[in-house]
């Protein structure tokens, strides 16, 4: 049974160790840097219990993202659930609970990947899936290693001791997006490891209040927000990114997924449909985000009275084309779905299209932002410092008089432009542009992987067929 937003918030008050600005955060549900975003996540849980969305978001009492899809129709149903949640944050909450839920479902689809000659994590992977699904938990992950050089292996999470009932790990992982809001965190490594890196080849899932586990938050855009009117996105949808540090953290054996095996530690992401499931959720969210940004462009050009100018109309058409392109990748990945483990593990979105979506999204998002900034012009710069200017008895009438637009009251226009600036030009917006560029990894990684994903041979064969069709003796 899915839990309520209230139950989710109550679970966050567990004493987890979160640090921000040199301060230990006692309660993320009440702290000014996290409380609104926590409430936004809680709203997602409430949507799953609402009469309007229950049948879309859940099946047999669990969120659809936790189910193992058996057909294209199942993928379409799962995407419909992704769409509801992504629209609730206008695409700005990326690593919502349904993200890693898809990963856990992928583990359950091919549990044998976790079985090696020295350690069998298959039952643990299945137990992780059941636990997350049955208790409707929010699971985050940290899979990026800190940069280390020769002789600095102690920076990366590694096994420092082995006990009868579990292991002890120390070290760090980077970019724990959403981790401070999660119930559990999966710790692993997605990049290939060398055979001699067995000490670092470990994956596990632990509660976020585990002793010795510390989260060091980056700057909070929510904490810097003046309020919802002035910062409508950053004040409510700052999912945060944190450095995860383990200092002699004990992990019971039943929570270990891979152990001292470099192949299995990478295979859990690539030889299960985990990564493809991630892209399915992310591409749905990306489509939603472009819809939102394009809607902003439409509202601004109508307010500015420039909508019917030919160059503006063309720019809007280009943005709408980008939305259609993002949508097409989602639909194409579903239409080209592939059997998992010969069909025994259900189906997954098509690999070739899913990998190509990573290229499209990273390159398209900055173009879309740049296009909308051009349409916004200088209007997003000359704005009142805060809503207090509008409310002031003396200043308010001046602002109201001089910042209105034909047919649009000053308050309505300022509200729209502040939303646009928060999406396009604020520090929060800059983080999102950089994040979308690297959402699925660095370009040198995903561009290389696209070559392996399939399609190259067919392209080469078609060109070769043309060459084979004529020669020096071919008639004019």
How would you classify the helix and strand content by structural class?
alpha+beta
The strand order across the widest sheet is: 2-1-10-11-7-6
Poorly predicted tracts of residues: none
Indicate the overall shape: globular
How many separate domains? 2
**What is the CATH homology-level superfamily of the largest domain?**
Butyryl-CoA Dehydrogenase, subunit A, domain 2
Q: Considering DSSP H and I runs of 4 or more, what fraction of the residues is helical?
A: 40-55%
Give the averaged pLDDT, no decimals. Answer: 93
The first-level CATH class of the largest domain is given as Mainly Beta
Q: Which band does the percent of strand residues land in? A: 5-15%
| Helix run count | 17
The CATH architecture of the largest domain can be given as: Beta Barrel
**What is the third-level CATH name, the topology of the largest domain?**
Butyryl-CoA Dehydrogenase, subunit A, domain 2
């Amino acid at each position: 049974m899915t839990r309520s937003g209230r139950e989710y918030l109550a679970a966050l008050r567990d004493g987890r160790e979160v640090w921000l600005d040199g301060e230990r955060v006692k309660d993320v549900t009440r702290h000014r840097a996290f409380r609104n975003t926590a409430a936004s996540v809680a709203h997602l849980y409430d949507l799953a219990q609402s009469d309007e969305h229950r049948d879309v978001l859940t099946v047999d009492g669990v969120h659809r993202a936790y189910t193992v899809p058996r057909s294209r129709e199942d993928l379409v149903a799962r995407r419909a659930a992704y769409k509801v949640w992504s629209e609730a944050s206008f695409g700005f909450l990326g690593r919502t609970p349904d993200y890693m839920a898809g990963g856990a479902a992928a583990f359950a689809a091919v549990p044998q990947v976790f079985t090696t000659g020295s350690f069998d994590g298959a039952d643990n992977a299945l137990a992780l899936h059941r636990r997350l699904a049955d208790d409707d938990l929010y699971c985050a992950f940290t899979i990026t290693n800190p940069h280390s050089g020769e002789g600095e292996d102690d920076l990366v999470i590694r096994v420092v001791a082995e006990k009868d009932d579990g292991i002890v790990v120390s070290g760090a992982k980077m970019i724990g997006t959403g981790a401070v809001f999660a119930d559990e965190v999966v710790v692993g490594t997605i990049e290939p490891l060398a055979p001699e890196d067995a000490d670092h080849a470990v994956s596990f899932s632990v509660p976020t209040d585990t002793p010795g586990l510390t989260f060091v938050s980056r700057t909070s855009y929510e904490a810097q927000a003046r309020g919802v009117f002035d910062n409508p996105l950053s004040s409510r949808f700052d999912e945060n990114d944190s450095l995860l540090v383990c200092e002699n953290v004990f992990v019971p054996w039943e929570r270990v997924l891979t152990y001292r095996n470099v192949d299995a530690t990478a295979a859990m992401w690539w030889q299960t449909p985990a990564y493809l499931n991630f892209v399915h959720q992310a591409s749905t969210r990306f489509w939603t985000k472009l819809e939102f940004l394009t809607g902003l462009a439409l509202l601004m050009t109508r307010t500015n009275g420039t909508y019917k100018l030919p160059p503006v109309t063309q720019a809007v058409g280009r943005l709408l084309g980008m939305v259609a392109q993002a949508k097409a990748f989602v639909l194409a990945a579903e239409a080209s779905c592939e059997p998992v483990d010969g069909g025994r593990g259900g189906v997954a979105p098509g690999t070739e299209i899913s990998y190509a979506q990573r290229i499209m999204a990273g390159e398209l998002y900055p173009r879309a932002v740049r296009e909308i900034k051009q349409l916004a012009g200088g209007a997003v710069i000359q704005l009142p410092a805060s809503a207090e200017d509008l409310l002031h008895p003396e200043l308010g009438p001046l602002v109201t008089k001089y910042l209105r637009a034909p047919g649009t009251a000053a308050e309505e226009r300022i509200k729209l432009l502040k939303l646009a600036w928060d999406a396009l030009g604020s520090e929060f917006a800059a983080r999102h542009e950089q994040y979308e560029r690297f959402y699925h990894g660095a370009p040198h990684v995903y561009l290389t992987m696209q070559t392996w994903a399939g399609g190259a041979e067919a392209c080469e064969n078609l060109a070769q067929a043309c060459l084979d069709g004529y020669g020096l003796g071919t008639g004019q």
